[in-house]
Amino acid sequence: MKKQILICCGTGCRANGSMKVAEALNQAVKSHNGNAKVIADIKTTGCHGFCENGPIVKILPDNLVYYKVKPEDSDEIVEKSVLGEEEIGRLMYKDDSGRPVRSQEENPFYAHQYKMVLRDVGEIDPENIGDYLERGGYEALRKAVSMSQDEIIDEVEKSGIRGRGGAGFPAGRKWRTAKRYDNFPKYVACNGDEGDPGAFMDCSILEGNPHSVIEGLAIAAIAVGAKEGFFYIRDEYDLAVKRIKKAIQDAEERGIIGASVMGSEYSLKLSVVRGGGAFVCGESTALMASIEGRVGEPRAKYIRSVQRGLWNQPTVLNNVETLANIPKIILEGGEKFAMTGTKGSTGTKVFSLVGKVKRTGLVEVPMGTTLRHLIYDIGGGIIGNRPFKAVQTGGPSGGCIPESMLDLEVDFDSLASYGAMMGSGGMIVMDDRSCMVEVARYYTNFLCEESCGKCTPCREGLRRMLEILTDICEGRGREGDIELLERLGHTMQEASLCSLGKTAANPVLTTIQYFWEEYEAHIREKRCPAGVCKNLTCFEIEAEKCTGCGMCARGCPVDAISGGKKEVHIIDASKCIACGSCRETCKFDAVRTGARQNVIEGRQAV
Amino acid sequence: MTEFQPDNQIQIEINGRACTCTKGEFLLEAARRNGFYIPTLCHHPGIAEQGCCRVCLAEVVENERSKIVVSCVYPVEKPCKVYTDSERVKEDRKVVLMLLALRAPESTEIQALCRQYGVMDGSRFKPIEGEKCIMCGLCARACASLGTGAISTVLRGTSKKISTPYDEPSDVCVGCLSCTRVCPVDAIPYTEDETKRSIWGREFPLVHCQECGAVIGTREEIALAAGKSGEEVQDLCPECRKKKMSDVMAHTYGTE
Question: Residues in domain 4Fe-4S ferredoxin-type (chain B) (predicted)?
């Protein structure tokens, strides 16, 4: 009997020690070599998406999955579950009712997902081209070289696939336009400069299934008539760069790409360019400037890069996830692809679900899945069962969506109609203890640092927005500030040079739209309802709820809490630094927030 | 030069008046050629594709859809209606001018634009004290196009500035003042006396015309020019060179 042990060796699991686990399992298998009944094969794979529970080990064909595996567990795993048929309960995932589950299909995190792009990520060894070929890899490219350029583009157009990088521009239309220009050389490029805080879908695909992206890019090159292509990969994605480079080399050696693509008359040279280290380098024209060796700054895009891109030649730039979808579209047909998702947004989307949810990680669902399904069914709801407040979608230039819109079916158009955006698929969930003004300030500050600084509305507009938001968070907000933010935001949308500037005001504008009262509380009442802005927060203990357990007093870093055993505790507002640790530790929800200034003034009055 | 052929022409309407422009011509040029003045700061005829300051905003209506464009880099490709002073343009320009006035409170050019075109009240904000530069980067691009590259934009976002590498005196600067000449707001400081010029933390000895004594340039600048053109190092000012040349001609052809 033959068994396979898959060990997740994506960046997340590596950070949790998966390479050591792989080594230990190897050792354990070797030392049990005497057993001839079972031949165990060990394979390191890409990311399974459930990184917080890594390292993840999967045993096939039993379909038994273990989480948070340590090197010390390897002997037991080999003895009981590889050579034997026994389960190890402590390493299994417990579902919401506390029952240990065997397979990924039974795990609520995976059960509601629908994997198309991520299907092979976590199943194949990304450094082994044979593994990819075994699963039908490069068959789509073989088919593509036998099709005409227009036939390829027809399929992509039929699929309706829209760019996964953020703007959602139809990929087929982009290819069609690029093909039309009779201006050679043409170029294709893959945007792997994923920079949104908390987002790692492209990283996972590049690391976990690099050949699928290469295959997609090669098909794009053939369709538009390009002979050279570039992978622009975020500089911090060391493993992704390494794997793509190896994959390109392996594909060249096998004659898949290179002087002749799959034995055809097409040729294709692919290379890797490491990102310039700036968030803005993910913007298409800045990315191209960076590939050319110039400073990564966008240019005015009245002439699109399909006409004048790299070195002023027609260039097709697609996102990693878009390209990874292409082989399937070519193999199975665009119509089949279009059956998944919504009318305007076909296929699936990978989201990185992070923040205050119980289960965080990479999830792939059909377009049109509701936020509620994502957050409550897949994510398992809010940590500590606290109330949901908002979900921030689309990265720093996305928007915050409130609870009233939890049943929104997520696709490109629905998000945009609410002032948010799909972006690359980052999804940060916030509970009632997140201050929306502070969230807006955080993103504005991020963009102040990451704007390229070329045009006035973005650079100076962000500077002034940050000035107002900092004032509001620190208790210096004034009447008229909200209107001023809106006015600035409006001009930034209209007059900025690139999409970064045009969308930079989204976090501010959406939080104003949906959480107006929170801004007003900060400005008028000098109160932070979420208890986050320190200058505006004072914590108090509710006598009816306090059990006198003393946990809060023990955790207080400034000894501001006093109270005897089993007596109601009291916070000394003059000592309190509003760090919130008492509120975090209290198991009885007895710590509530009040307005700092009022409390201090009140005390002085007494 | 592109030939001005009839099929290359597009009929557009600017502020209600029918105008003609060449396909692909930048809106700013088309408007100015037809007598409509649009203000600019970072636009320079010798340095293409700037589009940073956003003062030259205009409203373009195409297929009944209206959008704000940056006229200095917006190529007119199809018939459209253009408004250089619509309410929408004015509102956005007032905000842009406020942002610039806060950014560069010392700039008299910006103050003049604010007076002429109106500005949004910026009293809520703290201006950047003593600043004149609007960060358009023309100086760095001029320096680069001369092949010197002594200054460049440094950092990004709100910390962005113009400087020499590591803020140290540049080895390659020749003190030619190209940066100061393209600067739309006169923000680059330099000093000069009879014998030397100081800029970007360095001093450059000045070379005077052998004939009239006028300043020709810095020693480094003249050497660089000679190196590029392959000619001898000049010791005469342009005027005296012309005079010398005509004297030679006159002598040769005997028209004295």
Answer: 123-156, 163-193
